[in-house]
Design brief:
With 404 residues, the protein is an alpha/beta fold. The protein has 14 helices and 14 strands. A hairpin with a 2-residue loop joins strand 8 and strand 9. The longest helix has 20 residues.
């Protein structure tokens, strides 16, 4: 691509900041942009966005279809960990950032560019995820974050775009910041910055309002093999298609809306709204199947590491050795996670209505209180005596010390 010092690989979304950035990098730094748009799902108008980047001044504009890589290399490992940051957020944006970093670094290597730029501000989590991801993959690359440097507000950026003839999909009266991919949709800014205000209905892009959802529930069966979802209602399909189909079915019933006050990595609280019916439904199904097949102590230990996985991924540590070790643990736990979960969607809710597995540890003869009970009640008495012996010994000592 010529002189790598005069070119920058730009993580381009077609939105306000990255559109303005093409012109700003040229004007302020004399850098020509190679605009890279990574399709991680739920994207549309990609060719138009590519042509827009060229019209603004990018010397090259590349669209990378990364949906399959996203699903297999990032979403499935996250599903294995039932990953929910702060037990709510399925890491929609956090999981796509390391994928984008990998694509950007690959293109920088191929083009000979020695600089990568992203559109993150100094207040968000994504700046950390991009910076750490790029540095982990190639510490020799330079990183630029113009939005972190220029001090523009969103209103300033809109004015800059208007002054330079840059078309943007935002309006001053509706300044939402939206990020979406195969795993869901994230929305912030604008009216959402008031934590007391209920989210306006125009915040939501594809989930039905629960009160307007169908009056009858819908049941969906999800088949898993080795922890991976492989079929819906008995129909086998690729992972990307399966996520899209269960996403649409959950959305039709108003399931998957999240409105949360989130603890950002940079130390501030933010109000975030997410739509992730497919992600949340699959996590609920996967977790429900694990309840059936994982031994007690393994299950308990895994839950703690699930939170650690979520925090490390949220904090931009996807390529950290700690994440590699946690993922290795998760992979081992999935060997027996094969079976079927029946989900029930109904007016904003999703519940596990049934579960079965050839590896089930549920034994009716042990669990029943009916006539088929084979559990040893005599053995239980001895178990209670031995299990409680340390506590009993402690209690006796306390009574002696108290003079009783």
């Amino acid at each position: 691509m010529g002189d790598g010092g005069k070119h920058v690989v730009l993580a381009y979304s077609g939105g306000l900041d990255t559109s303005v950035m093409i012109s700003w990098l040229k004007e302020k730094h004399g850098l020509d942009s190679i605009a890279v748009l990574v399709d991680a799902g739920r994207a549309s108008g990609l060719e138009e966005l590519r042509m827009k980047a060229l019209s603004i001044g990018a010397v090259e504009a590349i669209v990378v279809d990364a949906k399959e890589d996203f699903a297999h290399d990032f979403l499935l490992p996250s599903l294995a960990a039932n990953a929910l940051y702060e037990e709510k957020y399925p890491l929609v944006s956090a999981l796509s950032r390391p994928l984008i970093c990998k694509v950007l670094v690959d293109i920088a290597h191929k083009s000979g560019a020695n600089t990568i730029a992203h559109g993150c501000t100094g207040k968000g989590n994504d700046q950390v995820r991009f910076d750490l991801g790029i540095r982990a993959l190639d510490p020799g690359l330079k990183i630029m974050a113009p939005a972190r440097e220029w001090g523009m507000t969103r209103a300033d950026a809109l004015e800059y775009a208007a002054a330079h003839g840059i078309p943007v999909p935002l309006k001053k009266e509706s300044p939402y910041s939206i990020d979406e991919n195969l795993w869901g949709r994230a929305v912030e800014c604008g009216p959402l910055e008031d934590p007391w205000a209920e989210p306006p209905e125009d915040v939501f892009g594809f989930t039905a309002a629960p009160e307007a959802a169908p009056a009858e529930p819908e049941y969906v069966e999800v088949d898993f093999a080795g922890g991976e979802p492989v079929a819906l209602d008995g129909e086998e399909m690729p992972t990307v298609d399966l996520i899209g189909k269960i996403d649409a079915r959950g959305a039709a019933h108003g399931f998957g809306r999240i409105d949360m006050i989130e603890n950002r990595l940079v130390g501030i609280k933010s109000r975030e709204v997410y739509e992730a019916p497919g992600a949340l439904a699959l996590i609920k199904a996967h977790s429900g199947l694990e309840d059936l097949v994982l031994p007690r102590e393994l299950s308990h230990l895994k839950r703690g590491l699930e939170q650690k996985f979520s925090n490390v991924a949220y904090d931009g540590g996807w390529f950290d050795p700690l994440m590699e070790a946690i993922r290795a643990f998760m992979e081992v736990t999935q060997e027996s996670v094969t079976g079927t979960i029946r989900l029930k969607f109904y007016r904003g809710s999703c519940t596990v209505a049934g579960r079965r597995s050839p590896n089930s540890l549920y034994d009716l003869s042990l669990a029943t209180y009916g006539s088929g009970d084979s559990f040893s009640h005599d053995a239980a008495r001895g178990f209670c005596e031995l299990f409680g012996l340390p506590l009993e010994t402690w209690a006796k000592k306390q009574m002696v010390d108290a003079g009783r």
